């Protein structure tokens, strides 16, 4: 048996191969059966004629239920119209396990409603579109790691269980921690800062948690975030890092995930425009632009989805909005030396309505100022003593950012809601399966 994966079939035209996978769909036309077989790397059409395979095998094809597992053997032949440019002339079929006939996500039916699909996420993953999204997600994660690894960053894992808030106390998940209280991490940033003082350029990458009570298409309670942190880097340098990074991820997907983006019917000409430099827009100018679109917006607030959308109508590539009002941002952000009302912060907004994918800033490196900010935010000082130590012993200006993986996947794949951009989404009142 010459076992081959579907994505490699192109190299085997003319040879006899075996594919192991699942029946995705089938069509019978008189004495010919067309089986669509998927194996996780792609889908291939297998054509069985009654004359070639015999009565018994043809009858098997005829009655086989969707999602039955099987091994098919046949000859690979070039076929212009097929995805991947090949099909298989079936010779032999071996059924490994017949699927129960009531597979809940039948291809032939009208698309089930989203609540139903979410309850069957464990099976929905097999559908072509979901498969394509998760393949792009895996590529994005690989591109993220390669970007930092190739530039001399050290990966430093941050803890999931933490004693204090990083991004505000309102979205913390509480955990019993023996006789104490702990929280699920909202961001690895504070630990990445400690690591940057040890290793210069670092990144942490893992799941983060926000007890968001919001039911939007952009919020999960558990999401993945990558957070680089760099010693001696200022806001300008940070913005350059952001645009290099985002451009690298997009280019990688265009290069290696063409087939998946095609399945998703993504307009890739829009992604091809994602190249540095990205426009930089001061918060004050952003407010002006939003108002000019007829959207009301009071100076001093953080942007919501409608404001991001209004601002982004003028742009066909990601935009870097910088110097947000300090009052609405986190306690650790460095004030703008030209106007302390503003923070040396920058968000990267994706075009086409996807909005914020990155939040970042230059950090306060002065001990006194940081102590003052912790007090102003009414945070307890004890859990931050270690963080203050970083300012006591050889403090330096430094900066970092966090990119949300699911929002990036949603944008690159053109997916409306981020619940489809993570294998098993966690949302308000939603934790099954
Ligand atoms: O802007 P945020 O809250 O920034 C931080 O957590 C910083 N500590 C990062 C840093 O500087 N190291 O979150 C960063 C990104 C957002 O831009 C967004 O992409 C994503 O994380 N994000 C979420 N994604 C899904 N669901 C949520 N509830 C999210 N909250 C933030
Ligand atoms: Mg943010």
Question: Which descriptors would you attach to this protein?
Answer:
433 residues, alpha+beta, OB fold (Dihydrolipoamide Acetyltransferase, E2P), BirA Bifunctional Protein, domain 2, 8-stranded mixed beta sheet, 5-stranded mixed barrel, 18 strands, binds magnesium ion
What does this structure look like?
The protein is of the alpha+beta class and 433 residues long. The chain folds into two domains: 6-97, Nucleic acid-binding proteins (OB fold (Dihydrolipoamide Acetyltransferase, E2P), Beta Barrel), CATH 2.40.50.140; 123-420, Bira Bifunctional Protein, Domain 2 (BirA Bifunctional Protein, domain 2, 2-Layer Sandwich). The protein has helices at residues 50-53, 55-63, 114-119, 121-124, 128-150, 189-199, 235-256, 258-263, 268-272, 283-292, 305-312, 367-376, 385-392, 405-413, and strands at 16-29, 32-38, 43-49, 69-78, 86-97, 154-155, 161-162, 174-177, 180-184, 201-209, 222-231, 280-282, 319-322, 335-336, 339-343, 345-350, 355-362, 398-404. The strands form four sheets. The protein has an eight-stranded mixed β-sheet. Strand 16 and strand 17 (355-362) form a beta hairpin. Helix 5 crosses helix 7, helix 5 (128-150) crosses helix 14 (405-413) and helix 10 packs across helix 11 (305-312). It is elongated, with a radius of gyration of 26 Å. The mean pLDDT is 96. Bound molecules: 4-amino-1,4-dioxobutan-2-aminium adenosine-5'-monophosphate (4AD) and magnesium ion. Magnesium ion is lined by residues 347, 356, 359.
